[in-house]
Task: inverse folding
């Protein structure tokens, strides 16, 4: 099957899923072309066929989502975005895909693409609009704005799946966990693992360095781009972006304190580490992730980077009710998507 895989490149959660799923699709004999949009993706991600296009990135200022500046940026760059969509249309006409998978990528999920095939939106954000998925009480404005943005990114989809921490709805899929995570040796080290890419407030760099020096606790930290050289700084080892090393550092840590994307706190939980997760300020999606993980007993939500609390947190229990769901093989997730797509194609051919 010829497949276009659309991937949002803001943050690394969408790219990390693509790094797992695209090779599995190709191993099944599918011809896959990856389209990413947004910020330039890190060089650690490699695909056989990949094009990066301008998209609709969020604007983050001081670790906060600025919705006004985001909307202004979208309108200001509309001609560029339209040209990117036209470039994708030309590629689609030439490639003639039989399926488009869009992971919160606005060009492959656009109703203006008209690809002539099924478009499956498969992203965490879809679960946040699912009426069967519980959501926290919060400001209506943030929730409405986030919901509007999610609909813009998925408007052209013919089928919707949302990654979620439990099978709350038939539209939910288990999160995509890289297959080497569950076979990685887990040890009880002394260091605190920190992932803080869009730091803000109490998560600032100097405070982390001072705390580690005062407490004598070693830290292995990822993030703080452009602020500090990679390498050893007192008790803090600033690590370069490397998925494999990040997994090893997490598997050997004493505890983890991370931002509230989907995968990093989940991976720490699956490695049975105590986890504190800190949502970005004014970011409803991350706040919801953190709230849902705390409700599910997977992590503790915090509004501040409380390193002391991370050291005092006990590890998760070994008999979590959603363990089997959360450790579902990526192959089975692909089975769900591809089997339904194949069934729909067969029905359409018969109807024709």
Result:
């Amino acid at each position: 099957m010829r497949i276009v895989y659309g991937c949002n490149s803001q943050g690394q959660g969408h790219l990390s899923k693509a790094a797992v799923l695209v090779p599995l699709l190709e191993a099944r004999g599918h011809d896959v072309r990856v389209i990413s949009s947004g910020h330039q993706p890190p060089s650690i991600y490699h695909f056989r066929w990949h094009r990066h296009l301008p998209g609709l990135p969020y604007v983050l200022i001081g670790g906060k989502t600025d919705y006004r500046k985001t909307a202004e940026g979208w309108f200001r760059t509309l001609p560029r975005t339209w040209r990117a969509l036209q470039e994708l249309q030309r590629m689609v006409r030439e490639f003639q895909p039989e399926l488009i998978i869009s992971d919160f990528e606005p060009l492959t999920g656009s109703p203006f693409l008209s690809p002539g095939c099924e478009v499956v939106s498969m992203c965490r954000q879809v679960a946040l609009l699912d009426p069967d998925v519980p959501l926290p009480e919060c400001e209506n404005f943030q929730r409405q704005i986030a919901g509007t943005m999610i609909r813009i990114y998925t408007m052209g989809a013919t089928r919707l799946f949302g990654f979620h921490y439990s099978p709350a709805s038939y539209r939910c899929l288990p999160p995509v966990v890289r297959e080497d995570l569950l076979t990685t040796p887990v040890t009880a080290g002394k260091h605190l693992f920190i992932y803080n890419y869009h730091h803000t407030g109490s998560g600032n760099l100097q405070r982390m360095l001072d705390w580690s020096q005062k407490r004598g606790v070693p830290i292995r930290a990822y993030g703080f781009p452009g602020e500090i050289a990679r390498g050893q700084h007192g008790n803090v080892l600033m690590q370069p972006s490397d998925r494999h090393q990040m997994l090893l550092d997490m598997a050997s840590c004493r505890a983890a304190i991370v931002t509230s994307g989907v995968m990093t706190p989940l991976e720490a939980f699956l490695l049975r580490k105590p986890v504190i997760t800190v949502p970005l300020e004014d970011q409803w999606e991350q706040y919801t992730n953190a709230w849902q993980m705390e409700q599910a007993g997977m992590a503790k939500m915090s509004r501040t980077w409380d390193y002391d609390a991370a050291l005092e947190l006990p590890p998760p229990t070994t008999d979590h009710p959603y363990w089997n769901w959360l450790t579902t093989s990526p192959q089975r997730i692909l089975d769900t998507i591809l089997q339904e797509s194949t069934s729909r194609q067969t029905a359409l051919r018969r109807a024709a």
About this structure: The chain has two domains: 2-176+326-351, 181-316.
